[in-house]
Amino acid sequence: MRFKLFVVCALACGFMAYVLANENISTEVEDQIINAVPANKANKIVQAAEFVEIVDQPKKATPSSPSPAVAAAPDKKVQKAPAVTPKPLPTTSAGKLVPVVHVAPLAASSRGTDDILTVAGLKPQPKSGALVMPLEYLGELYDLDSTGYNWDPNNNVAPPDTPSTAAGGYTITSARLAELRSNFMYWFFDKDNYGGRGDYQFDIHASMTQLHKNLNFQMPFYGFRFNYTRLSLNGYLEFSDPPEYLTYPLVFPIKDWPNKRDPSFMGIFFSKCRVGRIYPSDLDQRTPGVYFRVVRDLMGRTDRFGVEVRERTMWDIRTGVVGADTFVPKHVVIATWKNVSFAGGIDNSLFTTNTFQMVLATDEVYTYAIFNYAVLNWLSHTEAGGDTTKGEGGVPAFVGFNAGNGTQAYEYKPYSQNMVIRDLANRGWGNGFPGRHIFRIDEQILIGSCNKDIDAALLPLTFAPESGNMLGGQVVNITGPCFDPSIRVTCHFDTESVLGTYVDRNRVICVQPFLKAEGYIRFQISVGTQRFKWRGKYFVETPAAATEKIFFATDDVHKRNPSEIRITWNAFNLTSNLNANVMISLWGYRETKIEPQLEYIDVIEASYTNTGSYVITPSNYLTRHNINNDMQFGFLQINLTQPEQYSNLALSPILWSRPIPLAWYMAPQWEQKHGKRWPRALCDNWIRADRFLRNFAADLPLCPCTLEQAVLDLGRFRPDRECDKDSNPSCLRHRGAIHCVVSGTPVAQGAEQQCCYDRYGFLMLTYDQMWGSRPRRIHNLGKMPWNEASKVPSLSMWFHDMRPFYSCCYWQEEQAVGCETYRFERRPSQDCVAYQAPGIAGVFGDPHLITFDGSAYTFNGLGEFVLARSTDQSERFEVQGRFQQLPPNYYGQVMATQLTALAMRGNTTTTIEVRLRPLHARWRYRLDVLADGRKVYFDRESLKFQHFDGVTVYTPTYLLNQSQVVVQFDAGIGVEVVENEGFMTGRVFLPWKFINKTAGLFGNWSFNPLDDFTLPNGQVASINLNDMRSLYNNFGLKWMLTDRDVPNVGAALFTREFGRMASYYSNATFQPNFVMDPADFLPSNRSYDLERAEELCGECSQCQYDYAMTLNRDLAHFTKNYYDSLVNMQAENAKRVVSCGVLQTPRFGRKLSFDFMPGAKVAFECNEGFILVGDQRRECLSNGLWNLPEYGYTECLREVYYTRRVAFIAIGIIILVIVPLMLCIVCGVYRYRQKQLKEDPHWQMTLPRSRAGSTRNLRTLNYDPEDDSDTDASTLKKSRSYDKVYRTNEPLPGKPQIDFPAKKWDLDMQDEDVTSSEGEKPKQTGRRSLRSASGTELDQHDGTPIDGGHRHDAEDEDDDFDEADVHTGQLHPAGYHQPLSPEEADQLHQQQYSPTFSGVDSRTSGASSINYTPQSAAQNRFGGVPVLPNNTQYYNRPPSGVPAATTTPLRVAPTGPLTQDSGLPSPPPLATSPTPSVQKSTEV
């Protein structure tokens, strides 16, 4: 029995040895067999060889004629066979002998079809570089350098390995480049000049299938970056170990990672292989096996091989892959599998081989892979179900890429693991070669070659560039289906369709039309009559935010009348031919109809050399007369004049400028139309039109008061591209500002808020200056539908908001009426008095949470949970987080988790997901952002801000690695995600309308921490923050998500890939560490870790916990950083900001400071020629109010207006003072009169009524009874200053006494001078002189009395006179009253004296004439006659000189009401006037 067992073992060992011996033939024997040449053939070769003497430089020999096998297809290029370098022959001094091989035509091979390698018996199309060669072709030595090396592309001997970067090196010609690119296979060598094996990897065989290779540079691949690789015999380059056992068909990534290994690899033909064999008659006698070559640092290489590798690879990729127009390879890797057979086959199967090659080119940012499939004869190995003879059947090889670590994979459909894999050698058409397939593989796998056999409802479309200006003109290169020049291709951009232009079988070009849209739109193509099944997403850039391609050297284009405008552009954006001609034109935009109008205006330059710079001279366009001269802003456009001369295509790319004002071009036409003050006319027209539109300011969110608040309000505001402290600090239209923010998303009506801040961080207002914050009627993103006026992105905003800024303010003065109307009425800044800072909650660390109300706790759940969600059905939002277990530390598994992903969605918005990238995939991007499951990137300026349905996503402009992402919803909700060293934090910002409307792990925002732990059913859990176990079980796990919708919890929003559902990440049975203090859960022998935690974290308990759990310093550091940041944000937003609001700047004046915070003191000044009125300084009080002005509100008035105002004020004061005073006097007199009349019905007020009374008093005062002159008593002498006369009635000493004639002076005559020193004139008498003695007036013509009842009212005012009012004394015999004696006069004056009215005035108010006697008493010393208190006594008292016994009174007292005529004496008749006496006077 033992002997039988021994025999069996021996036989088994012998069989295994036999198999191994057949598979691992020694290299020496193999070379002898393969390279053996029959003697007769050797002789033929030697005889056919000729030696030509070459003098001086070696010359190229004439290429040999092709063999009949290739001549059968004369239209295909021929691949030359590898040349064999013979031993050098002795040469003479005159030169050297060079062998030239002449190949004779060969007869048909005895192998039949086996001589030509075929795929499954089908003969492939002949192509350059394919292994379809004559058997006896040896090669030719036609390109020799000074060292004697043959530079034939198919030479099997490696060139000298001497890289050089010296100047003046090798320069490749276009003919040489074309020759290199005409070969299908890249270089691979099995010999070198030193007797080595060249690129051949003899260490790779059946017993050792892979070999480690150091690259010594960073090669990006599928998000990761590697500086090494492993070359495998099994048709791939790998970067990590594959699983021990493979299950067919292969599925990547491995779902069970990390429990099972998930390899990272590039699979050109992933199948178990072994080294095959070739026949001695095969043309390419290079050794079967695996070849590998790395060519490094190509950018600086000047040696021939380095230059040729760089140029060939660069142009193959540039022309073969869309979007690689600027790619320059820095390193190239060439891996070739020549004549490899399938594993598990019989001996004869070693001759059934495949040959394929992988070329990798990278600049350490982008990586491209070229798959060259030369020959495919078998499909699968035996383990995958293939047969043992031909390798057919079973599961074919896997073709594609796997990122590894369970992340992502790409399988090249429909070829991979499908029977049509044999078509890889006949499809692809990369660079025009069947069998060449090109990919971009650095971040995502993008196919660069056409795919003919795939068919589905939604096929991936590869195109570049992936974005373009909304105005159109972007040339889009498209790859997807295989194209035919006779079949029409239609490109569909959203709602616009254009026809494509055929380039080659692998590429079609479409020119983007003018699109009235923004953001991602549908992009589809249709081939022939097929439906639009090839689809993708195309990003439309708004004109104001598009990639700038025309640059302005200065700001002259914005001025009113610049002298010149200098522009530059990148000439290569149009064509690589710098001698091409371009045309520069001007376009404008307006909205006079419902459709937007983008119209052509004029040609600036019809033909100009594409130098990349041009100077526009506005004076050249003074005589233009455009029909559409009402356009106030527009664009410059540059395009090729004859593009077919440079690209063989009648298509030209178009370069657009940013929106610019058109005053530099249109100003002369506007001046002819509106006059020299055309800016004012344009502004007035806009103001009239804007007043008809609705008021939009009420819809906008209020601006924060300070820059710190604006930066923290991430739910409503984002940085403004025009004024960003990080990327664009120029702030052209906001001078003095350092940063501006705008609304992240349009409000319901499409408006946009703008808030700008000065260097001190305070809000700039238009009430203070024209550069302040200006709200906008139209958001830069527009409003759906975008194809209507006032809703077009960027264009409508410029038409309604930017255009008037230039015409009203920029081209006028700041104090112009139009500018002030624009600033104060139409686009006024909104102050921050009612601003409300958002509520903030966050999660960080492993993980730690802080609620909206400030409650801090730790929850180490494993799975997907609700962080915050709205309980209001009208305003819904959800923010969800994914927590995964931390990697193990030095001591083993870590029972804690960390935040790795966030998913969020608004009411009806796009779902946004932000993920933490794997550890080794963060070299370029730190975070992955997915919009509805599709990855988006922010690494270009025009893609920094991306808008989706109801949500805007952006990254800070200064970041390129996507380590910070901000998501803003149209409801004012913001989510910020920050990553540092692989640890992320998430913060949620909510406006105040969500107070008492939130739930989740972030609690209910009610300013009351007691209800933070509200359960999904609405109940509040009684939780102790220090009891982590109770918090974990009774609160945290209640918010765990599943893939189904749970009431009040919802369903998970995360994108599911590779079959990983919520259950893959969730584990409700996971038991984390529930002890918070490290001193309580660390063992006693880890005191150093405890000390280290205290040293790193200080008093931060979250930081200490994280370090003690993970021993990761980075995690501890950023936990502390995130905690401090979140606490500081909450404290900052909790502060009550007191602001005094807007303090208007006086017109024609300015404020010396613009601060409006408590304690600010603002002073005012006026412009020259204006006067300040009101308070010169105002102060902001601590209660948020400006102090009340002491001297009135501040104004600046012109001097003439100021003077006029002062006069009006004085008049007003006088009126306001005198009128009330007069009213008071009248009222007082009236009340006094009423009182007197009540006591005495016959009482009459004695007030002077006319000037006649004063005249009569004067006559009385001047009457002297002792004067013996003949002057008439009724005549009064008026002395004048120039008469120099004093009436002393006494002669002067030593002067003679001279009597002058008396002069009569009738004071009733106001306009005549009745006194004169030149003789005597007739007496001038007034109407009162006509009064009769009986008291009646006489007619001046006939002397008849006039009835008193019929007298004029004006005369009634002068007739209120009584004789007793003149004086009480004896009646003169002539009928005149004698005046009072001095004693009587003094006595009366003591009784009553009025300083306002003289006694004479009060008693002579209506006398017609006064005749006084010489016996009249002298006037009193006060110059007036006292006013008597009661006039009643004078009516019944007889006159002086009349006996008292007379019973009949002189005048009967009236019994009725007193009138103005009551008591007036009747003047004596004119005939009774006494003879005037002569008045004595003495001249000085």
Low-confidence stretches: 19-141, 1268-1283, 1306-1377, 1392-1454, 1458-1464, 1468-1484
Mean pLDDT, to the nearest integer, reads 79
What percent of residues are in strands? 15-25%
Overall spatial form: globular
Number of helices: 25
Report the strand count. 62
C-alpha Rg (nearest Å): 56 Å
Report on the architecture of this protein:
It contains 25 helices and 62 strands. The protein has 1484 residues and is of the alpha+beta class. The strands form 15 sheets. It has an eight-stranded antiparallel β-sheet, with helices on one face. The protein is globular, with a radius of gyration of 56 Å. The model is unreliable at 19-141, 1268-1283, 1306-1377, 1392-1454, 1458-1464 and 1468-1484 (pLDDT under 50).
Secondary-structure map:
Blueprint (H helix, E strand, L loop, with lengths): L1 H22 L3 H8 L4 H10 L1 E5 L13 H4 L24 E5 L73 H8 L28 E12 L2 E9 L3 E3 L26 E6 L2 E3 L13 E7 L8 H17 L10 E12 L11 E9 L4 E9 L22 E5 L6 E3 L16 E3 L2 E2 L1 E5 L5 E2 L11 E2 L1 E3 L2 E3 L5 E5 L9 E5 L2 E4 L1 E4 L2 E5 L7 E9 L6 E8 L8 E3 L12 E5 L11 E10 L6 E13 L3 E4 L16 E8 L3 H4 L6 E3 L3 E2 L1 H12 L3 H13 L16 H6 L4 E3 L17 E7 L10 E5 L36 H16 L6 H10 L12 E6 L3 E3 L5 E3 L4 E8 L7 E8 L11 E9 L6 E5 L10 E5 L2 E3 L8 E4 L2 E4 L9 E6 L4 E7 L2 E8 L7 E2 L28 H7 L27 H4 L12 H4 L5 H11 L3 H10 L2 H22 L14 E3 L9 E6 L3 E4 L3 E3 L15 E4 H41 L11 H11 L23 E2 L50 E2 ...
